[in-house]
Amino acid sequence: MHGLVFRSFEGFVRSAYGADVWSACAMACDPTGGGFEAMFGYDDALMDRLVDDCAAALGKPRDALLEDFGTHLVASPQAHRLRRLLRFGGVDYEDFLQSLEDLPGRAQLAVPDIGLPDLDLTDLGGGAFRLDCGRTIPGGGHVVVGLLRALADDYGALVLLDHQGTQNDREVISIHVLKTDFARGRDFDLADRSLPRAGPVP
Questions:
Q1: Whether 189 contacts 123, CB under 8 Å
Q2: Is residue 133 within 8 Å of residue 170, measured between CB atoms?
Q3: Is the pLDDT of residue 69 over 50?
Q4: How far apart are CA 194 and CA 69, in angstroms?
Q5: What percent of the chain is predicted at pLDDT more than 70?
Q6: CATH domain 78-179 topology
Q7: Is residue 199 over pLDDT 60?
Q8: Which residues contact 141 (CB under 8 A, 6 or more apart)?
Q9: How many angstroms separate the CA atoms of 173 and 81, rounded?
Q10: C-alpha to C-alpha distance for 50 and 28, rounded to whole angstroms
Q11: pLDDT tens for each residue of 122-162
């Protein structure tokens, strides 16, 4: 698993639960205290253990912790790059859902070997969808649920999401879009105003 995932999880735990919780859990997985490097690769089993240790330290169900992590990936102030990558997928929530299968490829262009799970969306009609997620760590589909929930808020959509367990070694998520314009979504501009503008060509 890419080191960026570990660093993102570290940022989530630190911001939500404090540096002491993170230090205790990370030390159990990395006794050297060297931390995780953003551009290194690590065994998936190490992330699995890290999630277990954090969930146990917090007395929180593992699935709920993973879902909160998925929400953090979109909703935190530091998540603007990932949020932009996701929001480029469509003008409303259903458009965004239809672009999900392309997400691992788009992420790969930005960060080679990021290793996102493959996603397979089935449109069941009437605003209902089924999303099949390839597995990385057990329960990783709950991260996707949190991400989808945060994006629904971002778009201002009213959506029901349900993790339905595992079928044929793939995690299944039920999605029901009740209303795409339920509330005012967060502002989003295709042009990133935070980037410096190019000056005139001499």
A1: no
A2: yes
A3: yes
A4: 25
A5: 78
A6: H-NOX domain (3.90.1520)
A7: no
A8: 133, 135, 163, 166, 171, 172, 173
A9: 25
A10: 8
A11: 999 999 999 999 877 778 899 999 989 998 988 899 999 99
pLDDT of residue 171: 92
Cβ-contact 163, 145 below 8 angstroms: yes
Query: How far is 45 from 136, CA to CA, in rounded Å?
Result: 9
Global model pTM greater than 0.85? no
Candidates 124, 119, 122, 87; CA nearest to 105 is 119
Q: Which residue has the tokens 């605003």?
A: 127
**75-108 tens-digit pLDDT:** 887 767 777 777 776 788 898 899 888 876 766 6
Q: How far apart are CA 166 and CA 131, in angstroms?
A: 11
Compute the distance between CA of residue 47 and CA of residue 1 in angstroms, rounded to an integer: 8
∠ Cα 111 115 119 (to 5°): 110
Q: Report domain extents, the chain.
A: 3-60, 78-179
Residue 72: Cβ-neighbour burial (10 angstroms; 0-12, 13-18, 19+): buried
Angle (nearest 5°) at CA 104 between 55 and 136:
35
Residue appearing with tokens 């649920």: 145
